[in-house]
C-alpha cells in the first residue's frame, strides 16, 4: 500500500496530472480498488477486471451499451428507479423491463414480481439480458438484505441474466440492522455454480459517501465472471475516448485507501467522516418522522443512500385541479410546494410509480440545524394543501 | 472578464470543485469560451450553444451519436484519419464514408474526391448526413487554406451536410504562410445562405496547444445553425451523465482566457508559451528534413498539429517478408524499427491509406535536444532495412 502511495506521489511530482492514463485507469489505483474490495468482502479481486470511469454513470452507460444490441434486448430495472437507467437504455435503443419495488414491504424486492416481469417481456419477444439493482436504493433508500440478494442471484443464475449492482451509496447507511453487503460478497459466499457463472458488474463512485466529490467525476466498475473477450471489447470501447480524467482517479485512490491508525491526521479524519455520517443518520430520522407526522403522507425510513421518497396521497379534488392546470398531479403538488415554501423537490413520476400513486423525492442533505424549520414549513404547506382539496371542504382557493 | 474570474474564484472558495455543474458546463466558463471565439473570429458567439465536455473526444462521440440513426446514415471522414471517427461511427452503428486526402498535394482536400465519395455512398443506399474535417490534420499535419474551407462549406451547403470541425490543434501551427482559420470564421464571412444554413459543430480541447493537459479531460463544442430542438436533445443526453468534470472546466476557462498585458506573470507566460511553440516548430522541421534525407522515405512538412506522417516506400522483398511473417507490411516495418532502435511509431494502416502505400505516424514531441540522435538512429535503421530488402541485394539477413 505504501508503494501505491509512493506511485501517486511520483506521478504528481513527475509530470503531474497532465498525461492520459491507461484507458482503464492507472494500474496503481486499480490495484488500490482491488485491495479495498478484498478488505470489504473477504474475497480477492483482480485489478485487471476493474476499470476507472468518469463517474459511475459513465460506467453504467458503457456496460449497458455493451449489453444492448437492439430493441429486442431487455434490461430489468427497478421502479421507482434512478432515471439514468431509463435514459441510457432508451439512448442505446434497448427495452426497459420494469419490476416494481414493494412500498409496503419497505421497498423490498419480491422475486415473484421479477418472474412475472421477465415472463411478460418474453411474451413480447424481448430477450431479457440483465438485471439492475440499486443498493442502497435511489430514490427509495432501502438496503437489500443478504437473503434478498441471494434470491436475486439465484434468479439471475436460473434466467441467465447479468447482474448490474449499482452500489454507489454503500457508505451511506443510517441504521444498524441491515448493513450494506455487496452483491459480489453474497455471490462468492454462495459458491459454485453461482459464484463461478453469474456475470456481475458492480459500480462505485467518489460522488457519494461522506466525501461527495461529484464535480470530480470519478468512479469504477468491477467485473466478475465476464468472458475475457467481452472484457477486451469493453477495454477497446473505453480507449475510443482515451482515458478517464486523471485527478478523479487520484480521488478514487484516496477514497478506497483512506487514512489508517497511526497516520498523522487519522483522528481528525475519523472524527469528520463519522461526524458527517452520524449527522446524515439524524437527518434521515428527522425527515422520515417529519413526513409521517403530516396528513396524507406516508414515508418509509431512509435506511441508506441520500433520499426520502414519501408517498403523497392526493385527494381526488387535487388530482382534478392538476388536470385543469395541465399538470401531472405530483408535479402540480411539487410546484405548489416550491411556490409556497421555496422547498424544491422532484416529483415521483420522474422515477416511475404504480398508477394513481404519487410521491416526491427529496434529499436528506439540508443542514441539520435547518431541518426542523424545513419540516415545519413542509407540514404547514401540506396541511393547507390537503385542507384546500379535502373532499369535505366547500371552497377552493385556486 | 473580471467578473468571470471572480466567479471562478468564488466557486473555488465556496464549496470548491465538489459539486456537479450544469450538464452543459458552468455558465461562466461557457461565456469565456464564447468571448474567446468572438475575439478569434470576429463574429459573436452564444454561450448557450457551447457545451463543455470531458475532452473533445467525448464531444465528438456525443454529436456523432446524435447524427447517426442506423447503418444507412453515413459520415464523410478523411483518410488517413484519427481513428476516433472510425471507432465511434462503428460503435453507433453508422457507415463511414471515406474521402482521400492527396499526399502529393500536401494532404489537401479535393472537392471532386468528395463528390465521388458521396455519389458512391448514395449508390449503396447510404444517406450522407455529415462531413468531418480535421484541421490542422491528424495524422497528416496539414493546415486547410481559406479557399479550401470555402469549397468545403459550399459543398456541405449543396449536399445538405452538417460539418464537424475538429480544430483541436488550432494553436499548433509551425509555419506562417497558412495560419489556422476556423471553419466558423470562413462560414460567417461567406454570408447567407451558407452562414445562416450550414450546420456546423466545432471542437476544441485543453489536451493540445502549448499546455497539453490531456489528463484533465477538458473540451468544448460550439454549435452554429443547429435547430433549437436538436440543441435541447443534445442537452438532455448530456444530462444523463450529469456533468463534465469540473476541474477541467476551470482549465478550459484559463486556456481561452489567458493572461493579458499588465497581469503579473504575463511576461513569463508569453516567454514560456512562445518557447514551447517555437521549439515544436524547430522539431517539426528537423523531423521532416530527417525523414526526407532517408532512402525510400518521403514526408510532407508538418504545417500544424503534432505529427509527422512519412510515406515509407517498401521494396517488394520487404512486403514478401512481411507476408511470410504474417504481418501487415507497415506493421512489420514499425516492429523492426522498434526492435532495432527503441523508437515506437504507429503503422499508417491504423489511420487508413490507399492500397499498397505505407506510412508511419510519429509525434514531433521528443525533446528537441534528443531529436538529432533520434533521426540519426532512424536513418541508420532505415538504410539497413532498405539495403536488406533491396531487389538487387542477393542476401537476406531474415
From TrEMBL, chains A, B:
EC number: 2.6.1.2
Record-annotated Aminotransferase class I/classII large domain positions: 12-376
Top-level taxon in the UniProt lineage: Eukaryota
GO molecular function: alanine-glyoxylate transaminase activity; glycine:2-oxoglutarate aminotransferase activity; L-alanine:2-oxoglutarate aminotransferase activity; pyridoxal phosphate binding
Assigned protein family: Belongs to the class-I pyridoxal-phosphate-dependent aminotransferase family. Alanine aminotransferase subfamily.
Matches recorded under PANTHER family: ALANINE AMINOTRANSFERASE, GLUTAMATE--GLYOXYLATE AMINOTRANSFERASE 2
Name this polypeptide is given: alanine transaminase
Native source species: Salix koriyanagi
